[in-house]
Amino acid sequence: MMKLSSSIACFWYVFMIIISLYSVEAREVVYNVVTKFGANPNGKTDTTNSFLNAWKTACNSAGYNSAIIYVPRGKYVLNQAIFKGQCKNNIYITFQIDGILLSPKDYSVLGKTGKWIAFEDVSRVSIKGGTIDARGMALWSCKLAEKKCPAGATQSLLFSNSKDITITGLTSINSQMFHIVINGCQNVHMEGVKVKASGTSPNTDGIHVQSSTNVNIIGATIMTGDDCISIGPGTFHLWIEKVVCGPGHGISIGSLGKGFDEPGVQNVTVKSVTFSNTENGLRIKTWGRPSDGFVRGVNFQGARMNNVNNPIIIDQNYCPHNEDCPDQISGVQISDVHYKDISGTSATRVAVNFDCSSKNPCKRITLENVKLTYRNQPAHATCINADGSASGFVEPASCLSW
Known about the structure:
The structure is a single chain. By secondary structure, the chain is mainly beta. The protein is 12% helix and 50% strand. The protein contains 4 helices and 32 strands. The protein has helices at 2-26, 48-59, 107-111, 137-144; strands at 28-32, 42-46, 66-71, 75-77, 81-84, 92-97, 100-102, 117-120, 123-128, 131-133, 155-160, 163-168, 171-173, 178-183, 186-191, 194-196, 207-210, 213-218, 221-223, 229-231, 236-245, 251-256, 265-276, 280-287, 294-308, 310-318, 333-346, 350-355, 362-374, 377-378, 380-384, 386-395. The strands form 2 sheets. It has a 21-stranded mixed sheet that branches. The longest helix is centred in the first third of the chain and has 25 residues, at 2-26. It is elongated, with a radius of gyration of 25 Å.
């Protein structure tokens, strides 16, 4: 009897484990925006409400650990779409996109809204695959012709005040202004993202990060008309690796110091990146005006420059187009910036340019194993108010004072 009871208990234990595993697996639900919410993938019909209703339903799903909003192949026109948290039971929501999301054909529609696709106050959200196309070409032409034009959607995709975000395999093309913006977020992982816009498209930054902590950008390919990646105030613990940039304006910390009371940038790593025919490579830029901001703890390691105008540059007198320049002294303190294993070709004779603040000179700048040439000849380096050191093979010869 004892032996039989033990066998029954064992069987019951195994049965409950199987049921438990099945229950966990079964607690995922899939919502198809076409079959369940009526989205028409013909590239003409406005599908905004279908997407918003899919989000609302997924966000309020009871009894599930995760929900998938599935976007089948096809083209979906979206007006401004804002997805807001907080969702029930902290459910994990994945947008699985096999189709293309299109902005309205008339660029003035989004030009009045400020943003196109936005996630605000959300957590545990993932975007996998798909293409978002803001159709910004006509707006670029309007701006380049110096006509009276709307500003355009300030970003194609925005995550604001959110945490635990994953973006993988997404392609963003033809943004009206910024492609992807991460603002006020924690724990963001981007991998395999592609960005594409004309090299002459104005203000079309690829990925912009600000006021955010623990952000990873891995394996991105970015071709655009402004910074491939721009890093704004309040960014801490940012990791950038295996990024291909060009055309574009490079990877930039800043611009910083536009306001006095501004948070700094700290602990940034840029590793294994390639720049081709870009305006800049590795850049830090601050306005020439009083500020209590700072940049510290930056590691630039393993960068290849192919015909880059300014491969390594710190510019603390930043003023684009030399219009309305403040003509003051930058208060932003730049320190502990390390350049290691940087090689390739400069499109200009000055390959290394450190133009630092006279009030707060750059401190502890280091160069290690740097080889940059200009037309098969040694390039030049210039240093103003920059202290630091060089080690290993460094060409152009370091001008740092130490």
